[in-house]
């Protein structure tokens, strides 16, 4: 039985999204009597978000599902400063042109998960550069900076971690928490926003914004953080053997995206179904109770549901069909990555890297020497092996049991 009465906090709790809540009794009461506007910030450091960001997007989805209004804040302004949270060094500075391009590329990821319309609970997408770049420096120092003490700022984990490791923390990054706090104040004033959500590493930044709103405007603001999502083996979620698991199709093929979820550790299936899908809780309980090879059916449900939400139903169906053809039938699925082989052929090591199985020639040589690379299911241990195909011929290239691609000559 949940301790909460509001649909919002009960939904967040039962789906595994709650880690920390400021003043839970007051927030629960507020969410039970009125539509609450809530926001999450995303810094556009790349042209796509990755599944590490998906947990925060799902927080906004739950807000909307519970009958409240979500705001997506694109950190076009804060990214120019750089969030030190969880970082060992300073972020590379991005030009305005690159930031605009990144934001444009990222927008669709939110449109597939959230409902954007003119209703009271319709999502909004706002760029904080609209106001941060208009701030005068003296004005910021005088009106906002006076509410922050160096003593307090030095206690936050994002700062302590860098200082304890004797790694430099620039004055620029030190200002990030001030700017994020100002975002909350601005959103409170202009949009009636009363709740900020984020990952557990954002707790200090969120508390700063709450205190700033109280000191300057006497506003009652709230914060919720979700748990840091790690896999059963303790690794931070969002990385695969090939790097980040991107949300955008142009950064990662849908088959690889689907396959990442299909390869989930048995111990993570139930938790990920709760966090990243809308599968009913009783059905999740049934699926996570499956044992042995039967748990694979739950993994397929997970892969299908997440891929359908992020990439669309057609992408999910194509990925599942490809997996069935590749694994069950031993054939070549249509959704596998394809490498066009030139008339003169291509060396095996180069093929592994060009199709995206390995990050470098050195890694390709190691994998081939280990016997992990196969052509049409036959191991080949010579990285210099020349693959030559006749016009129209196709062959299957595999790395391990779960990475497959098509070599083709037109």
Structural summary, described in words:
- The chain is an alpha/beta fold and 410 residues long.
- It folds into 3 domains: 7-226, HUPs (Rossmann fold), CATH 3.40.50; 253-328, Tyrosyl-Transfer RNA Synthetase; 338-408, Structural Genomics Hypothetical 15.5 Kd Protein In mrcA-pckA Intergenic Region, Chain A (Roll), CATH 3.10.290.10.
- Helices cover 45% and strands 14% of the residues.
- It has helices spanning 7-14, 24-33, 51-65, 96-113, 129-132, 137-143, 150-153, 157-164, 171-174, 176-191, 203-217, 254-262, 269-276, 281-288, 295-311, 313-328, 348-354, 361-369, and strands spanning 20-21, 37-42, 69-74, 124-127, 193-199, 222-226, 239-240, 243-244, 338-340, 346-347, 373-375, 378-379, 386-387, 394-399, 403-408.
- The strands form 4 sheets. The protein has a 6-stranded mixed beta sheet, with helices on both faces. It has a 5-stranded mixed beta sheet with strand order 9-15-14-11-12. The chain has a two-stranded antiparallel sheet with strand order 7-8.
- CATH fold category name of the largest domain: Rossmann fold
- Strand segment tally: 15
Number of helices, counting only DSSP H or I runs of 4 residues or more: 18
Unreliable stretches (pLDDT < 50, length at least 5) are none
When the domains are counted, the total is: 3
- Note the overall shape: globular
The end-to-end distance, rounded to whole angstroms, is 61 Å
Q: Percent of residues in helical segments?
A: 40-55%
- What is the CATH top level name of the largest domain? Alpha Beta
Rounded to an integer, what's the Rg over CA atoms? 24 Å
CATH superfamily of the largest domain: HUPs
Strand order of the largest sheet: 1-6-5-2-3-4
Give a quick account of the main beta sheet: strands, pairing sense, barrel closure. Answer: 6 strands, mixed
- Named at the architecture level, the CATH assignment of the largest domain is 3-Layer(aba) Sandwich
Percent strand equals: 5-15%
Mean pLDDT across the residues is 88
The SS-based structural class is alpha/beta
């Amino acid at each position: 039985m949940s301790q909460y009465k509001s649909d919002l906090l009960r939904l967040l709790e039962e789906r595994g999204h709650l880690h920390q809540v400021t003043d839970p009794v007051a927030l629960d009461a507020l969410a039970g009597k009125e539509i609450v506007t809530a926001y999450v910030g995303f810094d556009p450091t790349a042209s796509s978000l990755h599944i590490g960001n998906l947990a925060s997007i799902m927080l906004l989805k739950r807000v909307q599902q519970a009958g409240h209004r979500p705001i997506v804040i694109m950190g076009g302004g804060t990214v120019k400063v750089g969030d030190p949270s969880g970082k060992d060094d300073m972020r590379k500075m991005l030009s305005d042109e690159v930031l605009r391009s990144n934001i444009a590329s990222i927008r669709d990821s939110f449109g597939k998960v959230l409902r954007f319309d003119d209703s009271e609970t319709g999502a909004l997408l706002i760029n904080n550069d609209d106001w941060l770049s208009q701030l005068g420096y003296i004005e910021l120092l005088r009106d906002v900076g006076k509410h922050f003490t160096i003593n307090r700022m030095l206690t936050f984990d994002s700062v302590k971690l860098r200082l304890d490791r004797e790694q430099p923390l620039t004055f620029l990054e030190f200002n990030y928490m001030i700017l994020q706090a100002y975002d909350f104040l601005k959103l409170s004033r202009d949009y009636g926003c009363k709740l900020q959500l984020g990952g557990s590493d954002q707790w200090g930044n969120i508390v700063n914004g709450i205190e700033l709103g109280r000191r300057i405007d006497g506003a009652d603001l709230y914060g919720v953080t979700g748990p840091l999502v790690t896999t059963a083996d303790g690794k931070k979620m969002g990385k695969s053997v090939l790097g980040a698991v991107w949300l955008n199709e142009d950064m990662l093929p849908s088959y690889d995206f689907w396959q990442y979820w299909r390869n989930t550790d048995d111990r993570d299936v139930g938790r990920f179904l709760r966090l990243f899908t809308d599968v009913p809780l009783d059905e999740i309980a049934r699926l996570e109770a499956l044992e042995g090879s039967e748990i694979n059916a739950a993994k397929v449900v997970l892969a299908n549901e997440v891929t359908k939400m992020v990439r669309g139903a057609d992408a999910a169906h194509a990925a599942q069909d490809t997996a069935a053809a590749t694994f069950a039938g031993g054939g070549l699925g249509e959704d596998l990555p394809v490498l066009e082989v030139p008339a003169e052929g291509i060396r095996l090591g180069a093929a592994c890297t060009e199709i995206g199985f390995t990050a470098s020639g050195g890694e390709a040589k190691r994998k081939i020497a280990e016997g992990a690379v196969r052509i049409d299911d036959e191991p080949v241990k010579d990285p210099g092996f020349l693959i030559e195909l006749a016009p129209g011929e196709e062959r299957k290239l595999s790395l391990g049991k779960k990475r497959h691609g098509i070599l083709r000559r037109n």
